[in-house]
Design brief:
This protein is mostly beta strands. It contains two helices and nine strands; from the N terminus they run ααβββββββββ. Strand 5 and strand 6 form a beta hairpin.
């Protein structure tokens, strides 16, 4: 079969032969969720980076869109992720909406898609009965994760734009 007659199919990784400008688009929520799931299945690539601090969650950037977080018992905070998965321990997602406060456990080995852009500047601080232990108050419509368990929790998160507040790479 002669593929030279179909050059567009054979030019993988090359510039556009039609001289169109190729724009990079941010990853979709589905692509982020797939990356989180794939990375969660390869702990040899990141487990050595896990750090435990009993005073506050520790965020470790893994690449431009994915980071690892360890959560001490009783701590929580608003997250700026579009997809998350729990690796070990217990985490609960707290969400404040116009209809009230909901709390759902984050299950291990399942990717939770948070959807939408979270932590938008100018967001309205919400209130959780008793607050989010050891953390900040979540913004309306923005999820907060809290560790209700007796041991540390480890999670992976992804967002199309690198959240501020993460340590430099």
């Amino acid at each position: 079969m002669d593929l030279s007659v179909v050059p567009d199919l054979t030019m993988r990784g090359q510039d556009d032969p039609h001289a169109r400008v190729i724009a990079l688009r941010p990853a979709t929520v589905g692509q982020l969720a797939a990356r989180v799931r794939a990375l969660a299945g390869r702990p040899g690539e990141w487990w050595r980076l896990v750090r435990f601090d009993p005073d506050a969650p520790v965020h470790v950037p893994l690449d431009g869109e994915i980071w690892l977080t360890t959560w001490p018992p009783g701590h929580g905070r608003t997250i700026r992720a579009q997809a998350s998965t729990l690796i070990a321990g217990e985490l609960a997602e707290v969400m404040i909406t116009a209809r009230g406060v909901t709390e759902r456990p984050l299950r291990a080995n399942r990717v939770r898609v948070h959807g939408g852009a979270h932590g938008v500047p100018g967001g309205v601080p919400g209130s959780v009965p008793g607050g989010v232990p050891g953390g900040e108050e979540p913004y309306e419509g923005s999820p907060a994760l809290t560790n209700p368990g007796p041991a540390f929790a480890v999670s992976l998160h992804a967002a199309a734009a690198r959240p501020s507040g993460l340590p430099p790479r």
